[in-house]
Amino acid sequence: MIQINGKRLIDDIDRLSGIGLGEEGKRTRTAATDADKAGRDAVCTWMREAGMQITIDRVGNIFGVWDCAPEDHVDTAPLMLGSHIDTVINAGKYDGCLGVLAGIEVVRTMQENGITPDRPIVVAAFTNEEGVRYAPDMLGSLVFAGGMSADEALAVRGIDNTVLGEELARIGYAGKPCDLLTPCAFIELHIEQGPILYRENIRIGAVEDLQGIAWYEITVTGHQNHAGTTPTHMRCDAGLAAAKINIFLRKHCEMAGSRTVATVGTCSFEPNAVNVIPGKAIFTVDLRNPDEACLQAEEQALTDYLKELEQTDQVRITARRVSRFEPVVFDQGIVEKIESAARSRGLSCRRMTSGAGQDAQNLATICPTAMIFVPSVGGISHDPEEYTRDQDIINGANILLDIAVDITTRR
Ligand code: HGY
Ligand code: MN
Ligand code: MN
Question: Which atom of ligand 1 is nearest to the CA of 356?
């Protein structure tokens, strides 16, 4: 069995992980920042060195195309590999990057082994998968899959009041309309980012589905007042109401049998002073559940609770939904190929659900798609402690290689 060049891939991951480190050494390459540009430039260089042609679409998605017989493949749907290289704030080094760099490594390995695919192979690095700076998340793959127009995406205003289209132009990644054919399949290698594979000591995850996500921005307006002189019963405390909402969400997730997870990841008070009762609290809610009906029920329960809180706490509450993705089921045939490739390589494998949002969930709406997971040590991710063992990286990339060879050389 052919193998990827593990040292080369690990070196690529290490090189990319060193890009976008802030003063205190924190890795942050949020979409369309200078740090993201530096990461993009590096990946484009490595793609070119691997003999790939680079295409950038209007929302900055990067496509490295390897086509060994372009004249024969004019109407042939490509196989697409890839993921994202933008990060959250103070991020780990594998999330997304593994899928893009392993895709490039698969192309190099096929070239070195004289394998001639029957179609182009495209490695994608999608824009703004994390959605930290611009919502919605998975924006680049959403536009590629036709779920959002490029014009609408380019007009999105970020949390820092910048406009995505202007920032992409500023960093030199405002490309042209994409002329790629819809892929015949999309395979994404990704770290699990959760505890299951590591806890069960299983080497490969064959990801068969992915949970739904709803993001809200909630604004609570109370009454700014003096922290010392205002009696408790006279307070309309926006900060307290925000805390009650967070506790409400946690209690819902702790209900027996609930598979919902909820996170208040950002929160700001106005005027944000130690001796002033907050007049305003602005925060985000990230709600997820693998079942669409349950996710809708959770959204309804939250809406009802906000109405109730307006009465009890004498505050006004607005909730704006900024991102919504339904759960997705991946292609059974590709999932079985992942399981069979793992068996052939003597690697333990189990089916699983992706708890994280992924570009694959958008690609699954236009072509057969599945994901390969490798273990995250301790289940830690979106954190500089994120770690996946070298051998697990190599195992995952070899499975990606096997699927790519299988799909592009079947007669
Ligand atoms: O938020 C997520 O689940 C992914 O990391 N974008
Ligand atoms: Mn990711
Ligand atoms: Mn992520």
Answer: 3
Helix axes 332-344, 390-409, angle to 10 degrees: 120
Provide the residue type at 52 as one letter.
M
Cβ–ligand 1 contact at 356 (below 6 Å): yes
Task: Give me the DSSP letters along 39-52.
Answer: HHHHHHHHHHHTTP
**Closest ligand 1 atom to 131 CA:** 6
Pocket test residue of 29, 84, 88 for ligand 1, highest count of atoms within 8 A of CB: 88
In tens digits, what is the pLDDT along the chain, a chain of 411 residues? 999 999 999 999 999 999 988 888 899 999 999 999 999 999 999 999 999 999 999 999 999 999 988 888 889 999 999 999 999 999 999 999 999 999 999 999 999 999 999 999 999 999 999 999 999 999 999 999 999 999 999 999 999 999 999 999 999 999 999 899 999 999 999 999 999 999 999 999 999 999 999 999 999 999 999 999 999 999 999 999 999 999 999 999 999 999 999 999 999 999 999 999 999 999 999 999 999 999 999 999 999 999 999 999 999 999 999 999 999 999 999 999 999 999 999 999 999 999 999 999 999 999 999 999 999 999 999 999 999 999 999 999 999 999 999 999 976
CB of residue 188 inside a 6 A radius of ligand 1: no
Ligand nearest to the CA of 192: 2
Question: pTM (2 decimals)?
Answer: 0.94
The pair of three-digit structure tokens given for residue 344, joined into one six-digit string: 């052939």
User: Residue 383: nearest ligand to its CA?
Assistant: 3
Q: Say how far apart CA 382 and CA 88 lie, in whole Å.
A: 7
Check: CB of residue 399 under 8 Å from CB of residue 372: yes
The answer for residues whose C-beta is within 8 angstroms of residue 410's C-beta and 6 or more apart is 118
